[in-house]
Amino acid sequence: MARFRLVPAAAVLLLMTACSGQAPAPAPTTTTTTAVPAGSALVVKIDNVAAARPQTGLAAASVVYVEPVEGGLTRIAAVYLNQIPAEIGPVRSARETDIDLLGQYGKPTLACSGSAPQLVPLLQSAGLGTGCQSAVPAAYFRNTSRQAPHDLYVHPDKLPKGTGPVDLQAVGPAPAGGTPTTKRHEQVAQVGFDFEWSDQKWLISMDGKPLTTTDGGQVGAATVIVQKITTRAGTVPGDVAGNPSPVGVTVGSGAATVLRDGKLFEATWSRTTRTTATIFADAAGNAVPAAEGPLWILLAPVS
């Protein structure tokens, strides 16, 4: 029975603590990119509320995860495996979901504004991350065109480098079958996503508006995967408003939908441990790989 791996297994290394702001700096304007060192990954936690849009540097990510967080909102974990832009943001805090999720990417550098104090023991037991704002304050700056807390940005070339192995093997020809699809609506918590197949990519809209970046126009993806997950209560009791902080369960199995090449493929996902890869397969166990190009994965809680 054939299966297909999303990424190879490896241990995760994360440590985040609460961080303070830095001196103001000009708004991001550059689109310069640099190469990611071979065998490493950079992950940036990016704000995704309306006040944080348009983001900077999002279009350059190899893989983008949309995570449900408290209050029905979402946050982005952008994984950079090839090129990284000169500036990325707005940067926000890590979540407990990241501990299991990012175990698929070796020992990535995680750029974030910090984490809730309750998470520190769990993050320490997972390893030591050195990309937090408190660990590398010189890499972060404040964008004066934005209001706090949506104003923190990072110069990723000033961060320490992650280690691998990282090898995206889940790229290949489309499987047989599929349902021709040009438009698709999906929901992650209370946030609506729309995907439209145009010019060999899925153009992404969010909450009824095109998702754009300051340095790349409307964001598109070669492949979109809707990974249906369950959530559980986490170590952090909730936010200041009392909203519980859900933890997305990414070890286990469930249903998935894969959008690529203007078609929809029904699939399943499975993952045995936090250090093993996510596998996507059809009902017969055949591989459902991604197409060449940016990949978006929506971690959509089962209602």
Structure description:
This is DUF3048 domain-containing protein. Residues 1-25 form the signal peptide. Keywords: Signal. This protein is mainly β and 303 residues long. It has a single domain, classed as YerB-like (YerB-like fold, 3-Layer(bba) Sandwich), CATH 3.50.90.10. Helix content is 4%, strand content 35%. It has 2 helices and 24 strands. Strands 3, 4, 5, 7, 10, 18, 21, 22, 23 and 24 form a 10-stranded mixed beta sheet that branches. The longest helix is centred in the middle third of the chain and has 7 residues, at 120-126.
Distance from N terminus to C terminus (CA atoms, Å) equals 31 Å
What radius of gyration results from the CA coordinates? 18 Å
Write down the CATH class.
Answer: Alpha Beta
Strand segment count: 24
- CATH-defined architecture: 3-Layer(bba) Sandwich
* N-to-C SSE string, H for helix and E for strand: EEEEEEHEHEEEEEEEEEEEEEEEEE
Unreliable segments (pLDDT under 50, ≥5 consecutive)? 1-30
Summing up helix and strand content along with how strands pair, one would put the structural category as mainly beta
Q: Give helix % range.
A: under 10%
What is the CATH T-level topology?
Answer: YerB-like fold
Shape: globular
Instruction: Report strand %.
Output: 35-45%
> Could you give me the name of the CATH homologous superfamily?
YerB-like
Q: How many individual helices?
A: 2
User: How many distinct folded domains?
Assistant: 1
The biggest beta sheet reads: 10 strands, mixed
Mean pLDDT: 85
Protein name: DUF3048 domain-containing protein
Pfam family, one: DUF3048
Signal peptide: 1-25
Domain DUF3048: 37-162, 190-297
